[in-house]
Design a protein that fits this description.
Layout lengths: L17 E2 L22 H11 L5 E4 L6 H9 L2 E6 L7 E3 L12 E6 L24 H17 E11 L2 E3 L3 E3 L1 H9 L4 E9 L8 H9 L7 E8 L4
Parallel strand pairs: 1-9, 2-3, 2-5, 3-4, 5-6
Antiparallel strand pairs: 6-10, 7-8, 9-10
Helix pairs in contact: 1-2, 3-4
């Protein structure tokens, strides 16, 4: 006898700065690929687009991965434009997030889920930010260049959202990526808010991982940062 799947709860606008949803995807379909490591939860993008965009707006994702942002844009009637150094599918264009082939002030909203250090292999391209460890200053210089490019392509008084996680390694220690990214963003954008998104990573529930964290006196990454800013020229 097959086991009945639990029904996903309806999507609702998150009213607080702590976001939680029990599934990577919403509805009866998937957004992006469930097999893509490091995919963004589609409910995060849905909430952002509902809050900060309108139907017909141009939404850009410069680290598009498996295309989750593009699928949510289609659901909500936005014009999704995705870029990646290693395009996962045909509707994602190849480009470096630090040099987007877009005109100045041509975009209504930018969502970015950059690599969190070099913990995953995204591309063989030597330009890939995911090849740089977060303990190296080059990593933050690369993110700074990407944020500057986002500011260039955005229209005035429009919003940007950065989804990112902190870094910890027993050998290299802790790097507060979220805090560093907020400081970088403040050079270009007015801060709107800082949201914590609960991570539903299967590894977090593994007994051996949890025991190792307690015995080794370190923490597993239980949330992602969601940093929201606004471009204001005056």
């Amino acid at each position: 006898m097959s086991r009945r799947r639990s029904k996903k709860p309806p999507l609702r606008i998150q009213p607080t700065t702590l976001w939680d949803y029990p599934s990577q995807h919403y509805g009866s379909t998937t957004q992006g690929s469930p097999d893509y490591r490091g995919a963004t939860p589609s409910y995060v993008i849905w909430n952002l687009l509902e809050r900060y965009t309108r139907p017909g707006d141009v939404v850009v994702d410069p680290f598009c991965g498996s295309g989750t942002t593009l699928d949510v844009c289609r659901d909500l009637g936005r014009q999704g434009v995705g870029f990646d150094l290693a395009p996962f599918r045909g509707d994602i264009r190849q480009a470096d997030a630090r040099a987007l082939p877009l005109d100045d002030a041509s975009v209504d909203f930018v969502f970015a889920d950059p690599p969190y250090s070099d913990n995953l292999s995204y591309s063989d391209d030597p330009r890939c930010i995911g090849k740089i460890n977060a303990t190296e200053e080059d990593y933050f210089e690369a993110l700074d260049a990407a944020f500057r490019e986002m500011h260039r392509v955005m229209r005035d008084r429009r919003y940007v959202a950065i989804y990112i996680c902190d870094y910890f390694s027993k050998k290299r220690g802790f790097v507060p990526i979220g805090t560093r990214c907020m400081a970088l963003m403040l050079q270009y954008f007015r801060p709107i808010d800082h949201v914590c998104v609960v991570r539903h990573n299967r590894n977090l529930g593994m007994g051996n991982r949890r025991k190792a964290a307690v015995d080794g006196n370190f923490f597993l990454r239980g949330f992602n940062h969601l940093l929201v800013g606004k471009k204001e020229l005056d």
